[in-house]
Amino acid sequence: MKAKLGQNFLVDAQAQRAIADALGDINNQRVVEIGPGKAAITDLLAKRAGELIAVELDRELAAALRVRFQSSANVQVLEQDVLKVDLTEIAGANKLFVVGNLPYYITSDILLHLCAHASVISRAVLMVQREVADRIVAEPGTRDYGMLSATCQLYARVERLFTLPPEAFSPPPEVHSSVVRMNFAPRFDELRVEPQAFLAYLKQCFAQKRKTLANNLRAAGYPASLVATTLESSGVSMQARAETLSLEEQALVFLKLQR
């Protein structure tokens, strides 16, 4: 293992199959695997996928993967940082299926990268640190709900599938890991909001999590009188924090602030 790459290889065979199964029928689909490592899941995917693109940053592992799958016409190995991979270009006219055991140190960055390419992704099945999964699936009004929750849930329907103990990996990490599934279905049109403007607004709302929504909006430059009248007309308490509002409520406040 190279600590800087956050490599903890999944060795639990049952979990490997469960992850592959969670993608659904990929017989005629183009699949992107993030960080295939020693090919524990790659072997399963290669037998099922119409086309498999394995994105591996580690040079030695990428070389080993090329040798291992040199006779598999449907497998392509990309030795590259997934954050620099243009998923939209890879997808072409197809919708991608994405799977991966995400490095803990860049999990959020990868999730945001997937969201940025949501229009070409059908489904993603991802292994993440349990605490990150808690945030991804958190509901408004709970301690774990925040900007990452709101962003992921804006772009996809999210669910936690199962959680694995450290001994399911080699070497064992110091934390539990959870597998989450994201079925991409962006909600911007439904909420009648412009994507970039609404995301920028949400960042302002969650800028200081201990502050009230009203205080964060005032700090972002909205006039105090506008904030007060908007929240009152939206049925939102001046003492409410951003994490207590649903995306529908946030969209309502956002749209009124733009008038």
Shape: elongated
Walk across the major sheet and give the strand order: 4-3-2-5-6-9-7
Helix/strand-derived category reads: alpha/beta
CATH class of the largest domain: Alpha Beta
Key descriptive features of the protein:
alpha/beta, Rossmann fold, seven-stranded mixed β-sheet, 12 helices, disordered N terminus
Précis, in short:
This protein has helices at 13-22, 42-48, 59-68, 87-91, 107-116, 130-137, 147-155, 188-191, 195-205, 213-219, 224-233, 247-258, and strands at residues 9-10, 30-34, 51-55, 75-78, 96-101, 121-129, 156-164, 169-170, 177-184. The protein has 259 residues and is of the alpha/beta class.
Describe this structure in words.
The chain is an alpha/beta fold and 259 residues long. It has two domains: 3-186, Vaccinia Virus protein VP39 (Rossmann fold); 191-258, Orthogonal Bundle (Helicase, Ruva Protein, domain 3). Helix content is 40%, strand content 19%. The protein contains twelve helices and nine strands. It has helices at residues 13-22, 42-48, 59-68, 87-91, 107-116, 130-137, 147-155, 188-191, 195-205, 213-219, 224-233, 247-258; strands spanning 9-10, 30-34, 51-55, 75-78, 96-101, 121-129, 156-164, 169-170, 177-184. Strands 4-3-2-5-6-9-7 form a seven-stranded mixed β-sheet, with helices on both faces. It has a two-stranded antiparallel sheet with strand order 1-8. Helix 5 (107-116) runs parallel beside helix 7 (147-155). The longest helix has 12 residues, at 247-258. The chain is elongated.
